[in-house]
Structure formats: structure tokens, C-alpha cells
Amino acid sequence: MEPNFKALRKEFPVLERKTYLNSGSYCALANDVKAAFDAYMEDRLLVGANWDAWITKNESVRALTASLLHASPDEIAVTASVSAGLNALASALDFSGPRNKVVVSDFEFPTNAQIWHAQEPRGARVVHVPRAADGYIPAESFAKAIDENTQLVAITHVCFRNGAKLDIPGIVKLAHAKGARVLLDCYQSVGSMDIDVKALDLDFAAGGMLKYLLGTAGIGFFYARDALVKSLVPTNTGWFAQAEIGAMDITANRPSPSARRFEAGTPPVVNCYAAEAGLKFLLAVGTPAIEKRNFALTRQCMQKLQEIGWPSVTPVQDERRGATVAVPSRDSGALSKELMKRDIVTSHRDDNVRASFHFYNNDDDVNSFVAAMKDLRASFAPR
Ligand SMILES: Cc1ncc(COP(=O)(O)O)c(C=O)c1O
């Protein structure tokens, strides 16, 4: 049975005041998530230092993230950001031999290119796969870049600039055929669609709780496939990455046997409260239903933009699209501000205004956005 989206919408008070199309930057705040922040404050006031609650919340976030990704909790590190997880992974890789190539795409969020370029002094060679003439990057384009010297293919699931989704099964197949591993940056997709790290045959994945996972900034996750965990020893580490957190042993580095070895210091405690509430909410709605709804909303939005003569640059095929519709503008920053004056919350990257949808959006949101765009078209559409 389809979730009751109308009732769920009421759990996000900002939606009474705003047309909120910014989940690709920062989700709307759910009542449950606000209550979780309040519970943290209460705990601090009433209990003081609640170490057990801290640990319980961190483990709860780990277990919920595992269930979201169809992984095991031992394959999940709870991190402070995508960058933190990627840096821990990078520190465990050896680029001194012939297999020193890292393949990224031109769709990457900066952090998933900068961190690999930062490994160049350690021997890494970073190769960028460019867009094709139509602006998309098909799996075939990766075939030219991935070879026997490729150690890692580090790619985004959905592009933060234009909402395009890469062909992950196709790229994973190409990478594994050459003995390379695949890292998926799924920050722009996780929570907006169903992701099964096993079905996708991923080696690593990273994301965070700020966007479609309904949580907050300062908390993320890193997934490492069970069979790989023990072969990787991050030098970027800390006491929460040790086999025994409480051992307080200063004579050696003893990494956890699980993916917790990719963690570092004290967890972001207040963020764990918020992330736990967000993940519980999202899992109760269900990612397959969310994916279906987001496809319907983005499809409708793109069709209506086409009707007003201001088409988006986001691919029309469902298999090539995430939950964001990106619309080109001669001044995307000013357009986003104009929309905000009309209580329509969007964001902008490059020359595009981004309208990102989540299950709490509805047809009225699509209509308000497109009506405002129609009004603003003469001043802001590309010349
Ligand atoms: C695809 C993608 N990766 C990574 C990030 C950010 O990573 P971090 O958690 O390191 O700030 C973002 C957005 O903030 C993103 O859209």
C-alpha cells in the first residue's frame, strides 16, 4: 500500500510556509527530528554526561544505515562527513605500485576529486571521464579510462550540478572486469531512491544525513564491503577506530575488525540523535515508495517546464535521473533569490537553478514552481 503522503507532509512544518524544493542541499525539518534535538538537550540538562546514550545512538545510526543500504552494521562506519570517510579510505590505499590510477567523472562533487588529487604526492594518477556531447556520461565513456592500472573508480551516483544519474551497474561491471574497485558517492541519491549496495556490487560507498536522509549536517557514513575491510588499515585514524574503544592503549594502533576502523574521534553526538530520528522516519516511509514518488514529481516538473518553453538540463529518462531538476538560467543566483521572494526555496549551482524533490513534496509544489518560472522567464531564461 502506498504511504499516506498527505499525512506525512504535515510532519514538516516548513511546508506550510514555503514551497520547499531544496532537499538536495538540506532537507526540511521533521517534527521527529526536532524532538530528537530537544531530547539531546534534555539529556544534557537532566543527566549531564550520558556516555551510554551516546554510544547507543551511534550504534543505532550504524544499524539503521546498514538496513537502509541493505548492508551489515559491520560494514558501516559512522563518520563526520563524506570527506572524512574518503580520507580514511585514501589513507589505507597504496599508490606506489603500477595500479595507481583513480578514475573520477566530470560529475563529481569537489570533495570526491580533490581528495584523490591530494594523493598525487603519494603516487596516485587521477583521470577524469568527460561528458559526452549531450552532457551525459554513459558507461562506455568509462571503458576508455578504466584499465589494468586502475585501483579505484570513484564516482558520484547523481550529479549535484544537473541531477543526472550515472549507470552504476554498467560502470561497476567495467571496473571489476579490470580488477578495479568502485567507490560510490551517493550523497545526492541516498534517501531519495532505493540503494542496495549488494545488488550494485559496490566495494565502497559514502553519503551523509543532511539531505534526503532527513537528519542534519556533521554526520555521514562510509560503507566498505565485508571482504575488503580487514585488508585495509587506515593511517587516518583515532581512538573510536580501535578494536577496543575503552582500551586506552597508547602503545599501538589496533584497528577494529569491522568498518568502524574508518572512523576517528568522538562521534558527533547531537547529530546522532537527529540522524537516528531521520533514518527511522525515512525507513518507515520506505525507499521504494519514495523513489517512485520522486520520479513522478520530477517527471511532472520537467514536462511542465517544457510546456512553458524553459526545459531543464536534467536527463528525461528515469534511469538517468535523480530527484533534482536543474534549470539553466542566465543568472541562476539571482533567479534563486527571486524564487525565494515568492517563498520558493531552491538552490543554484553553475548556471542552473536546482529544484530537488522529496516524498513530502506534492503537485501543488510543482505547480507553484513552474508558475513562478513562467513569470520570471523573460528575465532569467538563457538568452
Ligand atoms: C555528491 C556530494 N558529495 C559530497 C558532498 C559533501 O560532502 P561532505 O559530507 O564531505 O561535506 C555533497 C554535498 O554537500 C554532495 O552533493
Task: Describe the protein.
- The protein is α/β, with parallel strands linked by helices.
- Helix content is 38%, strand content 14%.
- It contains twelve helices and twelve strands.
- It has a seven-stranded mixed sheet, sandwiched between helices. It has a three-stranded antiparallel sheet with strand order 9-12-11.
- A hairpin with a 2-residue loop joins β11 (347-349) and β12 (352-356).
- α3 (51-69) runs parallel beside α9, α10 packs parallel to α12 and α11 packs across α12 (363-380).
- Pyridoxal-5'-phosphate binds at residues 81-83, 109, 111, 156, 160, 185, 187-188, 208, 220.
For the biggest sheet, the summary is: 7 strands, mixed
Oligomer: single chain
Q: What percentage of the residues does DSSP assign to strands (E)?
A: 5-15%
Q: Tally the helices: what do you get?
A: 12
H and E order: HEHHEHEHEHEHEEEHHHEHEEEH
State Rg. Answer: 21 Å
Average residue-wise pLDDT: 97
Shape: globular
What distance separates the N and C termini?
46 Å
Instruction: Find the structural class using helix and strand composition.
Output: alpha/beta
- pLDDT under 50 segments (min length 5)? none
Kindly state the number of beta strands: 12
**Main sheet: strand order:** 2-8-7-6-5-3-4
List the ions, cofactors and other small molecules found in this model. Answer: pyridoxal-5'-phosphate
Give the fraction of residues assigned to helices: 25-40%
